[in-house]
Amino acid sequence: MKKAGILLPLQSLNGENGIGDFGKAAFDFIDIIKKSGFDMWQILPLNPLGYGNSPYQPYSSFAGDEIYISLDLLYEDGLLEKRAEKIEQKERIEYNFVRKFKEKYLKIAYENFKKTKENQTKAYEDFLKFDFVYNYGVFITLKKENDLRSWNEWPDEMKNWIVDKKFDLTPYEDKINYEIFVQYIFYKQWMKLKAYANENNIKIVGDIPFYVGLDSLDVWENQQYFEITKDGNPKLIAGVPPDNFSATGQRWGNPIYNWEKIKEDDFSFWINRLAYNGKLYDIVRLDHFRAFDTYWVIDSKNETAVEGEWLFAPGYELFEKIKKDLKDVEFIAEDLGEIRPEVFELRDYFNLKGMVIIQTDIRATEKNYIYAPENSICYTGTHDNKTIMDWFEDLSEEEKENINKLFQKIGIRNENIYDNFFEFAMRCDSEYVIIPLQDILGLGKEARINTPATLDEKNWSYKFKSMEKLKEKEEFLKEIIEKNRK
């Protein structure tokens, strides 16, 4: 049976404190999408945001960003004596402002937490057993002590603690415990929200980046698994060659994996990452799936991604291990871009759903209007694309006419063109259909989430301000979804 989902980053909800978080707006959103007939909510990674507030350059594959913690829930749990003050709602997310605002209350909540018995509960003790928790507390504490500089720029005694444990952490014990508290609250609130979604038959689709950032706990505590020098500087870095997004390619800067070392340890680095994300989400989207087959390698001295080479990854060996150890986790493959056939062969061998994007795959003049195999997910676009309305408006008049003729021909005659695209997606053969909220509401370029290969301050800052517009479409959406279930 076909399943329908909606794509919206958690942070894009109109939360009370300047950003979408684990509070009331998220619970309300789940209620609305359930009434609208949806089965899934796809979000972006929730890990600590890195450079440019990108969720794809996190400080950890395991930790969560405290910016998503709901202050209202802290109050309801008795960790704040009074509700946080309301702040002026801005047009877009102002990350630095929100982070400082919430930190003030998180520190008050921590002091209250220390006075309660909650830090002696089984739930808290169980959380402390996760391998990443203490080391992340140390990592982020030392990072703050060094003005947020990357770990490879810290004084040697701090930088080497992860290896020799010689640096005395006693003076930092309370700061480390604060960071652990923050992670505990993040985990507790997120799992409560996820449980509510699941109770309402909504599955959460999460997203895990292929690479990790150089300035991350992942690299700091697993230096042997990366192509870096003894000083922690990258020798080889990740990216993609020139494509439709960029004439010079994309130079991401993430360190390249040392696959031989990872294989020697039976892929434990990858299995642990994926297993933990399998706890956080019902379905895990594997970003940049093509790199499990071949990946673009750039010398760190190069300023662009033009010069590089393709290297082979041990994709089959890794996914055999994943299939054996993580059989209960559903993975989907982000297999977009210019990709060699072997990537699809790897995907299909392990029966993973790939992605079909209407903006790039619609064929308005052929009998086969879109190639969308059943074992796939059809999107109008992703967080990296224009909204469907922005894309449509940029087409030539002939292209627009061809698409409108196609919709007429196959009997799609809604009042709005964006509703036609929604129904078209629901009619395709894909088992899953996931539509960005912006495309459901017909929003324009102002609502785009991210423009790849740019450092635009608008990236990742979109806010969805009115639930009422979505509520007004509940009946229409449910009718289209239910009509196309089979």
Automatic annotation (TrEMBL):
Enzyme Commission numbers on file: 2.4.1.25
Bilayer-crossing regions: none
Organism the protein comes from: Anaerococcus obesiensis
This protein's record includes keyword Transferase: yes
SUPFAM superfamilies noted in UniProt: (Trans)glycosidases
Catalytic activity reported: Transfers a segment of a (1->4)-alpha-D-glucan to a new position in an acceptor, which may be glucose or a (1->4)-alpha-D-glucan
Protein name: 4-alpha-glucanotransferase
Lineage, highest ranks first: Bacteria, Bacillati, Bacillota, Tissierellia, Tissierellales
Enzyme's top EC category: transferase
